[in-house]
TrEMBL record:
PANTHER family assigned to the protein according to its UniProt record, in alphabetical order: GLUTATHIONE S-TRANSFERASE FAMILY PROTEIN, GLUTATHIONE S-TRANSFERASE-RELATED
Native source species: Bradyrhizobium algeriense
Record InterPro entries: Glutathione-S-Trfase_C_sf (IPR036282), Glutathione_S-Trfase (IPR040079), Glutathione_S-Trfase_N (IPR004045), GST_C (IPR004046), Thioredoxin-like_sf (IPR036249)
Protein name: Glutathione S-transferase
Residues in GST N-terminal domain copies: 4-85
Coiled coil: none
Lineage: Bacteria, Pseudomonadati, Pseudomonadota, Alphaproteobacteria, Hyphomicrobiales
Pfam families: GST_C (PF00043), GST_N (PF02798)
Gene3D superfamilies: 1.20.1050.10, Glutaredoxin (3.40.30.10)
EC number(s) stated in the UniProt entry for this protein: 2.5.1.18
Amino acid sequence: MTSNDRIALYYSPQTRATGTRVLLEELGAPYDLHVLNMKAGEQRQPAYLAINLLGKVPVIRHGEALVTEQVAIYIYLADLFPGAGLTPALDDPCRGPYLRWIAYYGSSFEPALIDKFMKREPAPVSHSPYSDYDSMLGALEAQLSRGPYLLGERMTAADILWGVAFSWTMMFGFVPRKDIFAAYAERITSRPAFQRITASDAEMAAQHAAACGG
């Protein structure tokens, strides 16, 4: 194992990066954390802005490849470790639906969530990236009704992405706690990888708060 084989994960606890770390654990991937204290504003410092000009996490580096954007990171990592069985192969009929639901997260779910969080009037349906909020969630509910995972009986990296997302969005009331969503999130959050990272995040976040006088 050389240093170039390891994944560098730029990370802050209890953020979107948590799901990426859970995925790395599920994949059995070798990785190193580069932790940013966002409470101290380290994500806005020049050293990190040189890595990601938007000052966001997660970011991964693998050899010469630097990957930003959560959905791209999930696709990249799952493809990098196919032996873990969390990604359909290129010639697998499930590959298209798999990519669809990963892309749906970034292109439809997050824009809808931000509008809801900001209490903004959404764009007209004809101009909205997600149609309308109820339709956006309805598509997910319909897909999960075929469950237990997005691709039926087969768990993929897409489920790590969505299971973690449903967990925190239901916690904050952005997504209604419907039985189908709660049961789906539980399938992911009850797994050992999620439990390990959640415990680690809580400890790390407390350290960051203490360092900032919180």
